[in-house]
Amino acid sequence: MAARGLTMRRAAMRRGDETGRGTIGGYDERCAADLATVGEGRALSREDRAWLARVVTGAVRPNRDKPLWDLAHALAALALLTGARDGRDLVTLVLDPGLARPGAIEARFGASAAGAAAADARGLVLGGARGWRGGWGGLARLLALGEFLLAAEDLAHFAALADWLDELARAPDADAAAVLAKRLARRLAAYRGAHMPLAAHERRFRAILAHLAGRTAFDDDDVLAVWQAEMRAGERPGFRTVAEHFVTFEAAAAVLRDLGGLNAAAPLDAAADWDGRLDADRLDAALADLAADDPPAPLADLLAGFPEGPKILTGAERDDLADLLRLDPFHRTRPLTALRAASFGRVQSGIANRLRRGGGGAGVAERAACAEAESYAALAARARDLAGHLGRMLRIAAALRLAGGAADLPAAARAALAAAEADLRRVRRAGFDDRARLEAGFAAAQDALLRLSAEADRLDRALAALDRQRPLDAAFAADRAAFAAVLTAAYAADAAASPAVVS
Amino acid sequence: MSDPGRDEPDRDDPASRDPARLLAELHAARGLMRDAAGRAPGDAAGGVQLGEEPARPGLAALWAHATRAPGAPVDLAVVRALRGDPAAQRRYRALLAGQAVAHAPFAVAASDGGLAARRVGAYVLELVPAEDGSPPLLVIRGGSGRAIAAIEASLGDAAVRLALPAPVEGAYLLALDPALPEADRLGRLLADPAAAVFLL
CB-CB: which of A206, A272, A294 is closest to B34? Predict the structure, then answer.
């Protein structure tokens, strides 16, 4: 039973969604691959990648088409400055690796002028009735966006885009730039339509906003209430999926509240004057932070990319940690939601998997009763074991690093190192018998180990605090009744009419 | 929308002000960032790369190859990739097609006895066989008024590109001298209906 649960959990994690279906955040594999190609090819910084991801998903305000407007005008200006003869020359400019950095672009074009276009210390200018200006830093990003549009969907629209650039090169002025901007906006909108199923996510955020009725603060029970309401309304979101939406909402709410956006009685409603109430630049900076603000190495990725070598973490330990830490930062701020997702989220994904396969393992009704749900006390004990194990591994890492040079250390530190060495000799894990491999393995894993250990400790402390405030056994019993009621009501009919739709 | 105007992007798009929409877009952007961080380098090109395989050429390198002057030095890494990697071939052809004056992925007209003719966009290509010691001749007529400077024919991993001389009375003439390996290969590729032809 445990082995089967683990296998299923691993499979679901590989797919990135607890229900194992679709994508976690409203985009498909093609979209992720298209973005990764540009990001890797141009070695974009994390900030520029986040900017590009925002432009592609449309998370740019006041207007999501503004970057395309800027790209079209930049290309018109560059066409004038370089004397581009045709679309080919413009494609060459967009793809030129020598123009991937702001400094390189400035070095090439700085202080030049041709026709209505000019370049100065700040950036490019395209004259005309309304005039346009773009800074050097933004230009490198815009060219990355240009490459994304040219290369998207395995170059399926390359010829059409090359034709549009041809038209721009024939008369590179503000009018032609405006035409190109609209064409690019339509192209990107079509791309979103094909590769970004945002509607379901939008519906869920609407449900969250409706439930909170203008509040931005929420607690564990709000997450549960929204999930329950969605399930009763006939939707089938995973509990963890709803919690993930709350993670994004929390991050966004803090920034938007600062900007006076969500705090109003009618949050960002149709009558709100974007230009008047929100400074566009500040808003853009806030949105940029939101997309890029995740820790540079998200916890789940630290685990996925944990170096092979000595078995510092077994597969099962990694899976357990991933399960508990996936809703970062809720494992430390809302540990009850993390427990609910780990315990009942797993029950729900088991039901969803069974319905999808049409059989296998325990029946739907039996699963929905949550008899097999892992208790919060058991999860908390496992979290404590993991924190203890990671701490031990961290001390071993320190011992390996300091081996031989410990003589100068204070007595207490020397004693700790000796204890770590003793620990090391007791560990019976693959790769721990070869000192050279061990040192290399721990050196490679050191940064990940440090962060994971810190987060596991925070989870352990959060769970201990939760237990004092809301004893885990009582909380689990109450939650089991609540989850069983919702799951039974929702999935009994689905099982009869399978296959069910799970989003 | 069908008549693109001069105005800046419309600031009154109601969807722009919908917080649920913005949250969904942000959620997707954050998901993409997380996804990218978890992706192994090399995944991006869409294929599994084995350790010993050379890196897949980037778009810029493929584009430089697609726009090179006939006879110009080539990037051997790109040439190698185009020989062995069908995905790189596909991308390269998409780039070629995107900048070609005319192109045809295969011959529409079947060969007819000694005279093979094929249509490529607004152009007709004829292969006049060798006669009395003179080499076979490629004749390209028609066209849209845009000058063409080169021809590239390819089939699978075989490809050849030759410069075209200036047209004479509207027709481009190229001798496919069997003594010149490139010209000979072009002639054989053009005779194969499965070969793709790009006029550049």
Answer: A294
